[in-house]
Amino acid sequence: MSKKTILSAAFVMCVLISAGSVSAAEGYPVFDFEQKTVRLNSGYDMPILGLGMFALSDSQAENSTYWALKAGFRLIDTARIYGNETGVGRGLRRAISEGIVTREEVFITTKMWTSDFGNGDAAVDASLSRLGVDYIDLMILHHSQPSNDVQAYQAMERAVAKGKLRSIGLSNFYEPEDFDRLVNQTTIRPALLQNETHPYHQSGVMKDHIARYGTVMESWFPLGGRGNTQTLFNDPTISSIAAAHGKSSAQVIIRWHLQAGNICIPGSSNEQHIIEDHDVWDFELSGEEMAEMTALERDRRFADY
Q: Against a cut of 0.90, is the pTM above it?
């Protein structure tokens, strides 16, 4: 598929989603901006904006989880390899104890690391224990690993049957053939695919492909990732749109993700940044602005994993 075709498809999808015209029948999961959720193919509603815990220490993750829930976030994304599931659990219980949220109001995502794929049942139980919860809303395989990722996914399927997991998905599957390889050998369709996605790498091919399964795209590195955020924040198109709305570049990028149909999980250990990242519900990008953002596609990833 040519870059021009990718841009064209991404533009059409962005405009349709922004206008509220993409129906579930057409395959694309529909974002409910009133409830700030999307209905997954598993039947559960997932918040479309959350906070990511990548690169945070256990204590930072505790504080960030607490601050995020206090600011209004209802989605927290962590992973076994981050080493901070315990901190997330502490932050969650702290918010619950203060009456900020109930467990049922918070959507917890974690990921099974590749070295655990050979013993997925134990990996699920270990994450439950570290988080200190009775169930995990979403667990995803952290990377494609053809040698045993099907085995690991089947372990997650067993955990769904036992009520330990509610939804399951994938991360870092960048080729349609690789995605289909796993889907064709398993039973439960992935509810979500989490890939590096941002204005310079918009994941158009994979978004179009997974739509046939009712699978939603979630963006990691939604702001470019640590060390690259300023590249996006200082992009003339993004900074110009931000100035027009009286918002920050970060807020414009987050709003673009949501209107483009990407669940967005920026990460931060700064309380004020966390509050700012949630303050994206009082403005909307126009069709023209969405087209300008779509035109930034460069098929450029900032990470190599």
A: yes
